[in-house]
Amino acid sequence: MAGEIMDNRGRGEARGGLPSVHPEGRKYALICAGLSLIAALLAWETIAWPLAFLSVCILAFFRDPERVVPRGDDLLVSPADGIVTQITQVEPPLEMRGDDGGLGSSPLTRISIYLSVFDVHINRSPCAGTIGRMSYIPGKFVNAELDKASEENERQHLVVMRSDGVAIGMTQIAGLVARRIVPFVKPGDIVAAGQRLGLIRFGSRVDLYLPAGTSPQVLMGQRVTAGETVLGRLGVSAELEGLQQ
Q1: Which of 165, 163, 102 is nearest to 128 (CA)?
Q2: Bridge partners, 124 (sequence order)
Q3: 99-138: string of b/e by CB count within 10 Å (b at 16+)?
Q4: Dist. CA 72–CA 4, nearest whole Å
Q5: Is 9 contained in some domain?
Q6: Catalytic amino acids?
Q7: What are the backbone angles phi and psi of residue 31, rounded to the nearest 5°?
Q8: Do 95 and 151 reside in the same domain of the chain?
Q9: Are 112 and 59 within one domain?
Q10: What is the pTM of this model?
Q11: What does the pLDDT look like over 109-135, one tens digit per residue?
């Protein structure tokens, strides 16, 4: 059950079964299923079957599985499922700068995670803290894998303020197909590490800005899991290498 303690000494109970579906997607699946039923009653099979298949695809897209979040005050977990496509040093976006509840203006390490339409699109908090700044910016819908998507696409910036005063920045970016970013939180909300923060519909990207003195604990091309994969350890600066096989 959610909230159960899991550890490496055998505590906790592994559970299987199908993941739940987020309410945001149920209405779309019901609409498609209803249209499919109407088409079937009218003997329009060429329409009924594709609509039935589409309703199943929608349920799969909006799936919302439980995650086992590692516990540790120095851990920053992945905010999204997907593939690490960029690790680079950049200045934080203007909306996230400032020394008062912001990331400052000095270059920080940005980890970009690309989500395909087959990935879970529920985004999660990288750490425990309080939601500070949130800025929604309308924009274009270019390929989310491109670097310019961070500056041109529809996006939402948010900052999580840890209890020790360290600010962690995160940006949800819409992609070619995505057309809406849905937040689950607002400024002032207290969140736990791995807590659901929002979702992006139909393909997208999420950027995480690591604080100064923290190096990525993942590599380019690595698949990560929201709420479970550790992207960084605060204050730990270590160079990692991997071998693609």
Answers
A1: 163
A2: 196
A3: eeebbbeeebbbbbbbbbbebbbbbbbbbbbbbbbbeebe
A4: 16
A5: no
A6: 204
A7: -60, -45
A8: yes
A9: no
A10: 0.84
A11: 999 999 988 899 899 999 999 999 899
